[in-house]
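Quick bug: Palmitoyltransferase ZDHHC6 output formatted oddly.
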Amino acid sequence: MCVGPLKRFCHWGPLIALGIIKSVTFATVSCLSQWWPPYESWGSSVLFFTFMSCAVLTLYCFLHAMFTGPGTMTLNWEPVSVCWNTCVCLIL
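Here's what came back:
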């Protein structure tokens, strides 16, 4: 059941995170539909599309981070330091 890439879902952390994303999205869609239905005006359609785009991007970034996981950087990678001493950088 939990083999391959799906084994990352079989933990309480990702399941709770997906549940929070789902519940916030459904609650906001419900409130938006009651407050300013998307079929009434152009502005409400733009607002609804913008929110749905943000919700889909949130879900995409979460799933991408979960499936990619650590290891996208090379081993022992460090950023290139411009200054050799942080005190000198603060003075300059």
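Actually, after a second look the formatting is fine. The chain has one domain: 4-72. Closing.
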